[in-house]
Specification:
Strand content: 25-35%
Strand order of the largest sheet: 13-14-15-16
Number of strands: 32
Radius of gyration: 33 Å
Shape: elongated
CATH superfamily of the largest domain: Potassium Channel Kv1.1, Chain A
Largest sheet: 4 strands, antiparallel
Number of helices: 16
Oligomer: single chain
Helix content: 25-40%
Structural class: alpha+beta
CATH topology of the largest domain: Potassium Channel Kv1.1, Chain A
């Protein structure tokens, strides 16, 4: 049929309802029965509708009421308005007959073999009720091998918005099956980009999304090589294991495409903390990346909303009910929660029991940093967990032992600041772990010693928030680290001091909640848990003559927590 994509001609599947689907939606059903009988029961209808050699009798008034197409055709001034016979081109005889029957009876029998042709004809003739019947059937028979064709057709036809949404949701839910079909290889680039950018892809890990993109590129490398960067910008590259990514790229069959990918991904890693913004530039096929100076956006460092996630509980401190303080112990046990399975399972244990440690992820691996226990001098050691190998390995140590310190991943590096050393003294020092050279790099120290602080990233900067030291107690001060000029910048202080508070950064704001501090009326009393919340809205100002930036902003009091708490977690969903 004219206008039907070739790969959709024929069928969308086996009919699930006894070979046909019946829909009821009569255009003239609301006309009083007596008037309806006078119109439909006339022995002589006022026109013929012809397709090829076959003619159908019909009423102009009924067709005009049923369809904008016929309404315009029979409008005053049109030649067809005076004709007794009109010819419809591009619609097969049986389909035209079915649509005319639908207009009069409200019943449309359509099979999965004919539904596409009927849908296209109904759309052309403006029989919207028939369009609805057809789209309802198509939504019921979606499969991984036909959904992309149905999606393409629905996007071309007006009035199929709901079917487009249903196809989109189906592809996102069945992504891993859909990408194995031949139809996936024929997707337009714009549609593929829409998919790769979706938060709702149901995948076990991000490398499956990269694999799909590479399969599409490798299908026609000569014409698609120049599109590498426009696709990779939608891949959550910080979540990928470099080793597994290298193996995947090595399997690309086209040599020039494989080399371009290797160079581009290596450049991505080599640029370290710099934010990577991919742009095709130069002549066709030149896929070199351009890198912006600001830091990597947090959005592409996080798993997709519907991706499978593994939550790891690592180490810590345990004391059972009724036990004395001295009976407590540090843990080396590790547990993993599977968000798809909905259960916790024991995983490979740490080599060393750790309490007061920091935990973060980098390139798809988990890092357990510092911490320790009485008599165990392991505060500078670091262990890394490879989920593919299901084992922990000891990696390069920090320069300084740390307990109860701040830790954060940003721009492809791990930052640690402050904390307590093995003697219990607060620290101001800071370090950055560079995975490319596998070593810890000393950074300029903070201006204030801090333990029990919170470290978070926002706006391409690190914010060291609050904490505690022997001389000042709970701290209300905040410092901001600029990795480009490698210095700490003073930030307006919070309204109250907070140790062990929770912090998260987003959209030019810091959101600070809870913590602990002595009661304001009795500074010598034991610390209490806070329920107050503060929000810092900031902008990064221009650099001064000395090269430093100014962090301008102000604190406001937020709505308080219901329960006071410290050492809590705080995330944005």
């Amino acid at each position: 049929m004219s206008g039907v994509p070739p790969h959709l001609c024929g069928a969308v599947g086996e009919a699930p309802l006894g070979g046909e689907y019946k829909g009821e939606q009569s255009v003239i059903k609301d006309i009083p029965d007596e008037a309806k009988e006078r119109i439909i029961g006339q022995p002589h209808k006022d026109m013929k509708t012809r397709e090829g050699t076959h003619a159908f009798l019909a009423h102009k008034a009924v067709l005009a009421a049923a369809s904008p197409y016929f309404s315009a055709m029979f409008d005053a001034g049109m030649l067809e308005a005076e004709k007794k016979e009109i010819t419809i081109y591009g619609v097969e005889t049986d389909i035209l007959g079915s649509l005319l029957d639908f207009i009069y009876s409200g019943q449309l029998c359509v099979t999965t073999e004919s539904v596409v042709d009927v849908l296209v004809a109904a759309d052309m003739l403006g029989v919207h009720g028939a369009v609805t019947v057809c789209t309802n059937l198509l939504a019921e028979v979606l499969t991984p091998w036909n959904v992309l064709g149905v999606w393409e057709l629905a996007a071309r036809i007006g009035g199929c918005g709901l079917l487009v949404e249903q196809c989109t949701a189906f592809v996102e839910e069945k992504f891993l099956e859909v990408v194995q079909e031949d139809e996936f290889l024929a997707l337009p680039e714009s549609t593929l980009q829409q998919l790769l950018a979706s938060e709702d892809l149901r995948v076990a890990e991000e490398i499956q999304v990269l694999s799909a993109a590479l399969r599409w590129l490798d299908y026609s490398p000569a014409t698609r090589r120049s599109r590498i960067t426009s696709l990779l910008v939608h891949i959550r590259l910080p979540l990928l294991s470099p080793t597994r990514t290298a193996r995947l790229v090595q399997d690309v069959s086209d040599l020039s495409l494989r080399v371009a990918l290797q160079v581009l991904l290596a450049d991505f890693l080599r640029k370290g903390p710099g934010r990577r913004v991919f742009e095709g530039r130069g002549r066709a096929g030149d896929c070199r990346p351009a890198f912006a100076c600001s830091l990597l956006s947090n959005s592409i460092s996080e798993p997709r909303r519907k991706a499978r996630k593994m939550v790891y509980a690592v180490g810590g401190f345990s004391r059972w009910i009724g036990a004395r303080w001295s009976d407590g112990r540090a843990l080396c046990a590790v547990e993993r929660f599977d968000t798809f399975g909905g259960h916790w399972t024991a995983d490979s244990s740490l080599h060393q029991a750790r309490s007061g440690l920091a935990l973060t992820t980098l390139h798809g691996e988990v890092y357990a940093i510092g911490g320790g226990w009485v008599g165990a001098e392991i505060g500078r050691t670091v262990e890394r967990f490879d989920p593919d190998e299901n084992k922990w390995e000891e990696v390069v140590e920090m320069a300084t032992p740390r307990y109860h310190f701040g830790c954060c991943e940003m721009g492809g590096a791990i930052y640690v600041v402050g904390g307590l050393d093995e003697s219990g003294t607060e620290l101001a020092s800071a370090e950055r772990f560079d995975p490319l050279v596998a070593r810890w790099i000393p950074l300029v120290s903070m201006t204030t010693k801090r333990a029990y602080l919170t470290l978070t990233a926002a706006g391409g900067r690190l914010f060291a928030v609050g904490g505690w030291n022997e001389s000042s107690g709970a701290l209300n001060s905040v410092e901001c680290y600029d990795p480009e000029i490698e210095c700490w910048i003073s930030v307006p202080p919070m309204t109250v001091g907070r140790a062990s508070c929770s912090a998260v950064g987003f959209s030019g704001r810091l959101f600070i909640a809870g913590g602990r501090a002595p009661p304001p009326h009795d500074p010598e009393a034991p610390a209490i848990s806070l329920n107050s919340v503060e929000v810092f809205e900031f902008v990064i100002g221009k650099r001064t003559g000395g090269g430093q930036e100014a962090v301008c902003g102000s604190w406001s009091i937020g709505s308080s927590l219901i329960t006071g708490r410290c050492e809590a977690g705080l995330v944005i969903l």
